[in-house]
Amino acid sequence: MPGRPTMKRKRNVSERDDKFSQVSSNGGTIQCQNCQQKGHNKKTCKNPHVEPDPKPNKKIGRPRLDPSLTQWTRRGRWGRRGNRGGGRVPRGGGGFHSWFERSETLNTVPSQKRVNEEYNSEEMVDVDVMSDADGLDMADMDYITQQIKELRKSGYTDVDIIRCLGITKAHLEDFGYVVRLPMLKVDWKEVDRVMKKKKDMDKEMKWKEVDMDKEMKKKKKDMGKEIKWKDVEMDKNEKEMEKEMKETEKKKMVEMDKKKMKEMEKGMKWKELKQKMFKDMMKVEKELKWKLKMFKEMKKVFQYNKGILGIICNKEQGDPQRGSFFRS
Q1: Which residues of the chain, if any, have pLDDT below 50?
Q2: How many domains in the chain?
Q3: What percent of the chain has pLDDT over 90?
Q4: Is 95 domain-assigned?
Q5: Is residue 26 part of a domain?
Q6: Per the record, where are the segments of Basic residues compositional bias (predicted)?
């Protein structure tokens, strides 16, 4: 049909990002990301959303075998297409059981002796036994525990088990096994050199501590002297301030006393003046009273004399000379 894509066409850039939203390149069926059904894509789906089943993080594949027990078949990068196999393949066939049976037949040395030799050997393969554990499939747990038990019985070390099964130290600890690491060769010269360096460092640290203690003591002494001098100066300043305060208080008291004395003197003088004025007023009143008395008495005497003179005049009316005399 015209317009139909070829079976193996080149994908567009937008199709690489979202593989479930476009048509597949090889014409296969597509599983919908929304309802988890096949035959249509997410853009045309109208079914309710269904969450997919959880998938494990990591699956343990074929065990990593010893190179002496395996046959290497190197293939090119572009040689394998749909086939995912290749690489390391055991001679007696595929799978772990055939490798395990062949390894049992090849191990002619007793297990305990081989274990001791492997633990005490100097040429050990460095294996990352301290790496973190990834997720394992729960279906493979029993199978892996059985493999570990069989390898332990045959005398394999923990490092060999880790290398063969492709697991980590954390996986072994999860299965309930205590990992025994091999004994490495110790360079005693290097140890002595490190210990000497450590002793020298300790001596240097001690000398530095002694110097620091001396410096701290000197600083403490200097600080103590400075504090003493400051205390003496503060005492002197306090005494001077107290003296100044006392002097100022005395001056203020003297000034206040002087003012009070002046005011008292002024008050006394005013009182004396008042008393003098009062006395003078009393004297004036007395004099006025005396003058009034005298005036009244003089008035009485004058009236009395006037009456007597009138009587005398009436009796002597016949004498014109006397009358004229008195009239005049």
Answers
A1: 21-22, 65, 69-135, 183, 320-328
A2: 1
A3: 0
A4: yes
A5: no
A6: 1-11, 74-83
